[in-house]
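quick one
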Amino acid sequence: MIKLRFLFFCLLSSNILLAQSSLFLPRNLEKNYRNGTRSTDGKPGPNYWQNRASYTIKASLEPKTRLMSGEETVTYVNNSPDTLKTIRFKLQHDRYRKGAQRSGDVTPSDVTDEGVRVQDITYNGAAVPDDKRRRYATWLDLDVKQTPLPPGASATISMRWSYTLPAGEDASRECVCDSSTFFVPYWYPQIAVYDDVRGWASFPYTGQQEFYHDFADYDVTFTMPRGFMVWATGELQNAEDVLAKKYYERFQKAQKSDAVISVFTEKELQEGGVFKKGDRNTFHFVAKDVPDFAFASSDHFNWDALSVVVDDKTGRRTFVQAAYNTASKDYYRVADIAAKGIRLMSTWMPGYPFPYPSMTVFNGNDGMEYPMMCNDASQGDRDPTGLTVHEVSHTYFPFMMGINEQEYAWMDEGWASTFDMLLTDSLNNTKNARTRGYAFAAGTDNDVPPMVLSKNLGSAYRNASYQRPQAAYLGLIDLLGYETFHKCMVEYMDRWKGKHPIPQDFFNTWNNVSGQNLDWYWKPWFFDWGYPDLGLGGVEKNEAANASVILVNRIGNQPIPVHLEIEYTDGTKQTVHEKSSVWKDGKSQWRFTAPAGKTVQTVTLGANTIPDTNKDNNKM
Ligand SMILES: [Zn+2]
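structure w/ zinc ion:
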């Protein structure tokens, strides 16, 4: 009875609110509100669900042949209201399979006929015959029509697999960094996402759009030849078994150390005394509630580690590590930068306790995030702070907040590209935060509204995922002020941590928590074509008040703050900053009245943090 009344209330209220919302709701998303999986106030709906998996994987890597192989058992829980007749796995390495759809070239010698070799698939203990397996793009579909998976039930799937790690120069995000150093993502058959928005995910991994995975638990072992260390997502369970006493003690000390400790140097690792056994080692990692798992290995890297308090209420610490080549001149700084960055992320920007127990920044070939792991190239003589904090801050988006980057990359790249600048300025005591060149692309036919699904973007992908949302988020922080921004961010994270928010959940939550209807801001920034451009329209004299009035015209449709640097003829200067809310009601001109008696000599409009497509009208 209570339940029925509640349902009725939900339907009623959501219909009313749906009608009130001025933002376009794609027709295919209406069902999520009718079904109660999403709510118009931005909270997960009363019927929100998502599926879950737990993986047990025994893997090994042969450095000489680059052969990666493993056996895995996955337990998959169907929390959806649907009976699943297909179980879909991702074989992301199949991007290297002959004929695969790719967003960019790969080195021809890395392409193979068969991609991932998969064998001995069982579903609930029964073998899955060849004619019940369908391989296409980067998918492996198991046809389980005969024994479908009903709502609330779980299934166990097991298989053996192997492939050769791509080593060509076009390999990105993953790395055969040298003949005995590896960074390995996209390595195990992973269950695809089945969600309330689209059912089974259907866009393959082509090398461009990044993550969309369900949350899962992992129990993983890696067996490596003599002399190789393994770093991975999760926490190393058997450090005491594999590391010689001296190195185990350093490892233990680093768990509680605020300062960087060298667990071992490249030289110590190469000399051979780091491990207890002079034979193959098996490294055991456990990770809970993460959307993916990556690992790295080398027989000649340095390992720095320390830890940092990420939650002052509980004293919880995160173990922060850097693994790197001695030749990477900047990398001796990286563990410390990552730890200080994580502290700032936890307490200030975004200001939410870092969710993971561990983070390793690995000296690979890219700038790429994975849960608890980053593949970051050395920055050489340049400062590694920006790259380090960018990739580490991805922990929040898309990992802790399970963003679907194949559809909504701006929901995570935009934030990482905002956090990194602000964090870098705070760590380096600089004031270099700026927009990332959005003004150059803005308003061109390649500046696509971010609400166009990421999977449908080619050359427009980067601007729509990074530059434009970063400019929008910087403006949003300015508009709300830190306190309201932080309140919205924390509540958004509390509501959607470990779940899959979509854009409507973001817009609705921020409207709801800020107590303001921000649709006037969301619409031009995320839904509409357009560009930001303010221009100075001259100075008028208000004779009655004996004051100069500076006219600022809104030429572009995207709302940006008004920032004026004014010099008066008496040599005095004034800075004026007006939030973008000045344009909220659609007016096309804003007037600034200077103090009485002052005559304006020069005016400069704009700031590095404000995108403006036409700067010719910004000086007077
Ligand atoms: Zn990023």
